[in-house]
Amino acid sequence: MYTNEYYISRCLQIAINGLGTTGPNPMVGAVVVFENKIIGEGYTSAYSGPHAEVNAINAVKDKALLEKSTLYVTLEPCSHHGKTPPCSDLILKHKIPKVVIGCVDDNPQVSGRGIARLEASGCEVIVGVLEKACKAHHKRFFTFHNNRRPYIILKWAETKDGFIAPRTKNEQKPVWITNTYSRQLVHKWRAEEQAILVGTNTVIEDNPSLTVRDWSGENPIRVVLDKYLKLNQSYSILNDEAKTIIISKKDIEYEKNLAQQICGILFLENINSIIIEGGAKTLQAFIDENLWDEARIFTGEVEFSEGIIAPILKGKLISEEHIFNDTLKIYNRD
Ligand code: AOF
Ligand code: ZN
């Protein structure tokens, strides 16, 4: 006999397949179980596509079994008509008698209504199985709805002696601190988040395109802080490979609560997660205003002796790994 926890674990395991494609939707996982056997499973399709429950139910070959099955799902089934019809209605239509849920959906359009709808029709509902793990899995979605801002990942690379960039640069080519493997990993990360943000100086110095060239996947929305609207079409960031949002002094007051005001704009753009890639001043603004969730910091082998000092951050070290000669440390905000 398998436990509820066992099947919710399986839901979490398949849910991760939606990473990078579902945003701003959460990446949910669902499995249908009949007599201790998984007879269907599914995860949230790319944004505006079917939800996890729909895919799991569709995967069940013998639909007659649904009347005697349990549906397991990481997040409360929805109750509203969004891009897709309500999952709770589909569950009731197929007369699934029992639903086991990881955590409640904090989207104000749902927040308990999916559960209430199921219960009102006589479906047995169990809520809160592996709740902590499910909430952690849906961190982007929960941060967005509860804090009214995206889940914020800070990323930078610093030299062995603590510099994020050289003081001055003569050539129009980037100075690499990390190796190609680390850089490839960053492209993977970009494909996992909905947006990426940098300051104007980073654009002017490095002329990055901020796309996922080295990894398959969607390019994130590019957000640039361009206070004085200095950028023009000659910069790669304004090419048509991805959407770009420019934030200038017409949009926000640059002098105070910069990060907070940016978060306000990102919330209105429905951006549930963002990776902030520099420069030092931009990163420090988010750190100083305590508006970050995770920091991914590379330390390379090179030394600059002088240059722009890397941001200072206090957080809880979650992991440390070596990518050949680079070190990658991941921190969470305490
Ligand atoms: C579910 N299962 O797999 C997901 C859910 O516009 P829609 O119709 O796609 O609805 C989006 C909302 O539905 C989203 O904000 C969240 O509350 C919920 N996501 N719900 O039952 C799923 N991804
Ligand atoms: Zn749904």
From TrEMBL:
Catalytic activity: 5-amino-6-(5-phospho-D-ribitylamino)uracil + NADP(+) = 5-amino-6-(5-phospho-D-ribosylamino)uracil + NADPH + H(+); 2,5-diamino-6-hydroxy-4-(5-phosphoribosylamino)-pyrimidine + H2O + H(+) = 5-amino-6-(5-phospho-D-ribosylamino)uracil + NH4(+)
EC number in record: 3.5.4.26, 1.1.1.193
Domain CMP/dCMP-type deaminase: 2-126
Pathway noted in the entry: Cofactor biosynthesis; riboflavin biosynthesis; 5-amino-6-(D-ribitylamino)uracil from GTP: step 3/4; Cofactor biosynthesis; riboflavin biosynthesis; 5-amino-6-(D-ribitylamino)uracil from GTP: step 2/4
Keywords for the protein's UniProt record, in alphabetical order: Hydrolase, Metal-binding, Multifunctional enzyme, NADP, Oxidoreductase, Riboflavin biosynthesis, Zinc
Protein function: Converts 2,5-diamino-6-(ribosylamino)-4(3h)-pyrimidinone 5'-phosphate into 5-amino-6-(ribosylamino)-2,4(1h,3h)-pyrimidinedione 5'-phosphate.
Family: In the C-terminal section; belongs to the HTP reductase family. In the N-terminal section; belongs to the cytidine and deoxycytidylate deaminase family.
Protein name: Riboflavin biosynthesis protein RibD
Taxonomic lineage of the native organism: Bacteria, Pseudomonadati, Bacteroidota, Flavobacteriia, Flavobacteriales
